Amino acid sequence: MTATTPTPATPPTPPTGPAADDRLLRTSPLRRLLGRPELGSVVGALAVFLFFAVVADGFVRAAGLTTVLYAASTIGIMAVPVALLMIGGEFDLSAGVMVTSSALISSMFSYRMTANVWVGVGVSLLVTLAIGFFNGFMLTRTKLPSFIITLGTFLMLTGMNLGFTKLISGTVSTKSIADMEGFASAKALFASVLTVGGVDFKVTILWWLGLVALASWILLRTRVGNWIFAVGGGKEAARAVGVPVAATKIGLYMGVSFAAWIAGQHLLFSFDAVQSGEGVGKELTYIIAAVIGGCLITGGYGSAVGSAVGALIFGMTDKGIVFAEWNPDWFKFFLGAMLLLATLLNAWVRKRAEATA
Length: 357
Description:
The protein is built from 14 helices and two strands.
């Protein structure tokens, strides 16, 4: 008998048609762009800019643009950590009054307890971070909705701001600390003006851009960023795969409080005194800026860059109406319209993102 050598089997050819594994297919730059959460806010920002560039004299001048950037930065400093918190699936309704609390603590402690404002600034940082820790701790331990927890904190801080200021100062505002030791150096850090090419820029713009860069790095380049998206998408599923849900949420609330400390110090050292009733209603501004920037109310989706663009839209609309010499009451109308349009556009962008995933 003659032995027959078996013919080697030909390896199967990988499928190249619709049956191919989607993970092996290259995604076009256009499809990746359509999947970005900040796409809608960028389109909206361009539209708002072009609109006011046409109808408002002085809007596109250097002085006008720096005014817009300053207005955007005062919102954007808080909108960035609020966006991260929303990506993590939570809210903070105390963010607005926390800014005022931070400024009041620095001012009153410096004025009553020490001769150097930096001591008050340090105490304010510790107390403000403690407020953020309290919000996160109560949320994770009680399992109550963040709306209830932070609404309670909002009411308590509102009352304490007014009550302690009247008790200590006798009025609804703090005493001036402009003549105290350390005021000039603190003002340089939190409220100085930088001149570049003959144009003045407020230092808050640098704080804002720095926070955007830091938050983007955390979200896109670190394990903590994965945790934030995971707990926002579903905390039980995240806990099942080993994500420290409680620590992540507490950290996000402390991030909001840290930004509130920065914003509060800017408020104090810009005017050297603080009105105790300020900040009420600002929390909605920060949330709206994050939503316009692509964050979903349900969590698990958004970006830090989007929140910055949302804050920029706020700044352009607010100052554009002034440059156009319109009734400022129209600002709320434009704000509501942008919120609705951004929400609808964000929903469409998310569907595109899920389709390209």
